[in-house]
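Exam revision sheet. Question 4 asks you to relate a sequence to its structure. Input first:
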Amino acid sequence: MIIINDTYREKLSMSHRACRRNNQRVVIRLAAFIFPLIYAANSYSKPDMTPLGPNIADKGSSFYHFSVSTFDSADGNRHYKVWTGVPDKHPPASGYAVLYMLDGNAVMDRLTDAFLNKLTQGTPPVLIVIGYQTVKPFELTARTYDYTPPLRENDGEVGHGEIQGRKSGGSLNFRRLLEETIAPDAEKGLSVDASKRAIWGHSYGGLFVLDSFVNSTFFNGYYSASPSLNSDYIVLLSRLEKINTAHFPHKQLYFMEGSAAPRKKADGEEASAVLNQVRSTLSSLNHEGLAATFWAYPGLSHGEMFNVSFQRALLTMAADNVEKQPLPPLQ
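Answer key, structure tokens:
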């Protein structure tokens, strides 16, 4: 038999309390380490692919009326759904401004009547929102092909590639469909001011906007939000710097980017280098007389830039008089 006296019991109790305190400290330290990792992971997580419910076109708006059309790609592999939203306000004498918006399923899901009401406080633009025939917010395979330009080496076209197993490099085909088929159908019967025709895109859509700025004269305004300028597509900035600005006298480029902390230091260094190159490119275009603007959104992640950027584009277009803004300090 082991006899435990009171003194030993007290020492044992003190030992147990010390052990619990140590365990609590470990838990707190682990939490302090894990929670930032969870936050960072969420900032770079894949988009929510939960099927969508009725959108503003289905529910009806007090300020816009919507119509829907469907289209197919030339090869029959991709299927589009296009919403055209026309303000209930009469158009200006010169016609409506019009904004083409990519990733249309997600855009339509996030448009609210309260926001459309804000647009009508100015001169609301026509909305031409290009999505896919899906109930999901994003059609990942189709958008990867449609929105990305062909891969290039030494500024020479290589052709189609793959991104995460999805075919890429179809921007020329999609732009032809957009400009020659979708746009004439969507604008038919509308009073549109062709000098105020603009396009917005986010991520791969932002790449498509930059690629269109270089290769198309169809649009006047180009809103590129957080374009995916990885090693394959950083060449777009070099191509922007080489354009003959005399051929782009009326074009306006808007570049929008957030700056949420990346998952690891190397990512942050790479992102910072890309943003510095963006700023240098836009400054060069400004120096050559072309309207190019950088809008920084400190603290916003890549995904959070989606809503903020399309709303900013629409509000900018709806404003009666938009002054050209100088480049803000890089955040």
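Marking note for examiners. The radius of gyration is 25 Å.
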